Each structure stands twice: as structure tokens, then as C-alpha cells.
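INFO  loader      accepted 1 record
INFO  loader      residues=230
INFO  predictor   begin
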Amino acid sequence: MSAPPDDDEGAEGRQFAGLPEGRLAATSLPNLVFTELVAGVDDLAELKVTLHIFWTLALHPRKHPGFALRELQGDPLVQHSLSVIAGDSQDTLDRALERAVVRGTLLRIRGRGKQGDVTWFFLNSPKGRAAVEGLARGEDDFEPMVGEQVQPPSQSRPSIFALYEQNVGLVQPILAQELMEAEDTYPAEWIEEAFRIAAEHNVRNWRYVRAILERWAAEGRGDEADRRFS
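INFO  predictor   done
INFO  writer      dumping C-alpha cells
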């Protein structure tokens, strides 16, 4: 990794001039990108690549939210952004993509397509998962690599942030810590069920959901998850 600059001149070269006056183009991203994904990323290269992919797809929507590896390798903005971190931007890109795949942000499938060997990366979204499953079945004349372990992405339970946004609204910063503590305290199935009950009663606020969880913790819910509080 390249050493940080040891004088003011190097730092000034990377200064941001600030937002100018007037209307500026804006990019719309799901709130969960910031409240859950960005908040959990601890690697700068992974963060840069992840945000670049979301930005590009928001700017130029595609039929499937995917990129060929060669496309990312040839993107001058990606290369410049990663060269600030390390001299070998290609190696940094490979490591960033691997971390994003392990985290579950991206889905990867390798094989042979119409233009030869290719590695595809798709967002882990409904459209992205459908695209991976289609390629694994041989759609679009794609042949998965021999020995490639292609499995449908596992569908884990939604996070408490996702449930809040689906049933209540935008997560306010003041609530973020409380939601994380609740996720660490209560079983995932309890949280999901409590939000469902609140929605059925058309009471869309966190206090109601929290009261349900607290009552179950104190009195029991009558299922195996009660053991966490026994």
C-alpha cells in the first residue's frame, strides 16, 4: 500500500472543493445502502467499488444489475479511485470484489458466454438473483465453468433496518443504535413477527413493536426462541 503524503501539498491535491451553487444531478439509492451496507463495510476499496456499482446502475439502469469483470477492470473512474489506495489498482479491485461477494453485496458467476470466458458480478437483489439463476441454467448461451458451485443465493431473514423501512419508514439516526441493540437482544423471528403484528393492526411505529418484544421477553412467546430468555 502506498504511503500517505507527509506534506501539505499532497493532501491539498485531494481536497474537495465543495458543492457549487445551483441544481446538481443527484443519485437515488435505497436507504438500506447507508443504514446497513455502508455502515458495515470496514474496507475502503470494497466501499468504493460498492458505491461505484450502485451509482453506475442508478445512472444507467440495465435489464440485469450486473457487470462483467472486464468492464470494471476497464473503467477509468474505478481505476483512478482505487489507485489512490494502492499502486496496483487491478489487485485492489480483485480483493474488493471478493470481499463484496463474501459480504453478500454481490453475486458472482463464472463461465463461458458469447464473447468467451467471463466473470459476472450482480447486485444481490431480486433482479440480480434471477439473472444468476438464469445463467446457471444456461440462458443467453452461457455455460457455467466446470466445477463452479452455482447455488441459488440463500434467503436470510431481513434485517431490523429493512423491516423498519418496509413497515414504518425512514430510519432516523437517533433510532439506529436502539434498533441495533434490539437486533442483538431478540431472536430474528420475534422481530419479524412483531413488525407483522404491528402492520396488521395498522400501528406503524417502533414503540409498538418494541412493546411487543419486551412483553414476549418478560412473559414468553410459547416457542423455542423463549430459551434465549430462560
